Amino acid sequence: MKKLLNTLYVTSENSYLALDGENIVVFEDKREIGRLPLHNLEGIVSFGYRGTSPALMGVCAERNISLCYLTPQGKFLARVLGAVKGNVILRQQQYDSSKDEKISLEIAKSCIIGKVYNARWVLERAVRDHSLQIDVDKVKKASNYLKNSLKLIQDSRSKEQLRGYEGEAASIYFGVFDQLILQQKKEFCFCGRNKRPPLDNVNALLSFVYTLLSNSITSALESVGLDPYVGYLHTERPGRASLSLDLMEELRAVLADRFVLSLINKKMISGKNFLKKESGAVLMDDELRRKLLIEWQNKKKEIITHPYLKEKIEWGMVPYVQAMLLGRYLRGDLDGYPVFLWK
Questions:
Q1: Measured between alpha carbons, how far is 255 from 248 in angstroms, rounded to an integer?
Q2: CA distance 74 to 211
Q3: CA 146 centroid distance within chain
Q4: Contact 20, 55 (CB under 8 A)
């Protein structure tokens, strides 16, 4: 269990939550593993199936402490609230800000600045760690382009202009992505980003992991009471979680792309588990999908220091922290949205 920004996260899937006086008590196999005062909590997020005592649920409803339940893999199940108070106001602020051109553009800029900044440092890390295995000049040139594009992104005066800079930066980044593949080059050759359907093994991996990341972010937004379907950069479309796609931008390169590269470069996967259809689409078999899900769960357990909070957290908690920070900005508690900047 870990407390972040007045929200308690219970990550053990076998935990049962109960009430003892003014405290929430967490049990695992009938053994107390932690307790925390309720008086300064705004929310509780549980990654498990064991449940919550009726007494604790009643007190949380009375004090407007949200209870959110997710599967151990992070899939959203439900939120339990008492009388509607703060969350309807938060969502109204979200809807209003999405229609405000200035605020909407600033949030969209932050997401793309995070995307390009983090993509650049993925390239810089490759130059630092693998200079003898890559074309350093080519990768450094791409990195410098991304660095220079950050100023252009910050000065964007419209979303159309912002999307143009973002598209150019993504093209430059993926133009050298093949340099980051150090092993199994024959089976995992990358010649550019393609999707719907992916046409090679690397793109099949990227698309699958991007879906996993998007689902995590959607659950995180639901857990704080934000509407995942009302975004700032991505346009609203029936069935598309636009806000999830906005927040995913800052984590694509640093979390999803690095995860895929690690699987390939450490030879944790091979090309034998991919199938190519007559249409050219490349699919993964069930064995590989199961392995990816296991390794993704392991990746989410790795510890990092959050660049804004300066606290050690698991990678899997990052979407929840970013969702909370966005919620705090929309409520007026922060002057700006603190985008996730990794280095």
A1: 10
A2: 13
A3: 21
A4: no
Main-chain phi, psi angles of 13, to 5 degrees: -75, -15
Over the chain, what is the mean pLDDT?
Answer: 90
- d(CA 14, CA 126) in angstroms, rounded, equals 39
Distances (CA, A) of 174 to 11, 80, 171, 190, 290: 35, 42, 5, 9, 27
Whole-number Å distance between alpha carbons of 41 and 333? 16
Helix, strand, coil percent values for the chain (each to nearest 5): 50, 15, 35
Q: Is the Cα torsion angle 209, 212, 214, 217 positive or negative in sign?
A: negative
Query: Residue 20: in which H helix or E strand, if any?
Result: strand 15-20
pLDDT tens per residue, range 159-187: 999 999 999 999 999 999 999 999 999 99
CA-to-CA separations, 62 to 91, 199, 238, in angstroms, rounded: 21, 53, 35
Separation CA 281–CA 184 (nearest Å)? 20
Question: Whole-model pTM?
Answer: 0.82
The band of 82, judged by pLDDT with boundaries at 50, 70 and 90, is low
Handedness of CA 111, 246, 207, 153 (dihedral sign): negative
What are the structure tokens assigned to 18, written together? 């109960």
Distance in Å from the first CA to the final CA of the chain = 26
Average pLDDT over residues 226-254: 90
Residue with tokens 């909407």: 104
Query: For the packed helices 159-175 and 136-154, what is the interaxial angle rounded to 10 degrees?
Result: 170
d(CA 66, CA 125): 40
- Helix, coil or strand: residue 197: coil
Tokens of 319: 């979407």
